[in-house]
Design brief:
Layout: H1 2-11, E1 18-26, E2 33-46, E3 51-54, E4 59-61, E5 65-69
Antiparallel strand pairs: 1-2, 1-5, 2-3, 3-4
Length: about 70
């Protein structure tokens, strides 16, 4: 399902689509981490590094994504 949503985002990448994404964020000080949800506009999908790059500069590794949605406007 995530791959399918990423394909839709890739087709609309010129529009910088806004997405809702829930992903795992590793703790920088100890083992473990937490799940984080955010809504942001996608700048690009870096297929080489397997990352989502957002307009605000945030980067999420695709393997860390739990859920991805494109909000209906």
């Amino acid at each position: 399902m995530i791959n399918r949503m990423l394909q839709i985002v890739q087709k609309r990448i010129a529009e910088h689509p806004e997405i809702e994404v829930t992903y795992f964020e590793a703790d920088q000080k100890k083992e473990g981490g937490r799940y984080v949800s955010k809504t942001a506009s996608v700048k690009k999908i870096d297929e080489f590094r397997k990352n989502l790059v957002f307009q605000n500069g945030d980067i999420i590794h695709i393997r860390d994504i739990l859920e991805l949605n494109i909000p209906v406007k």
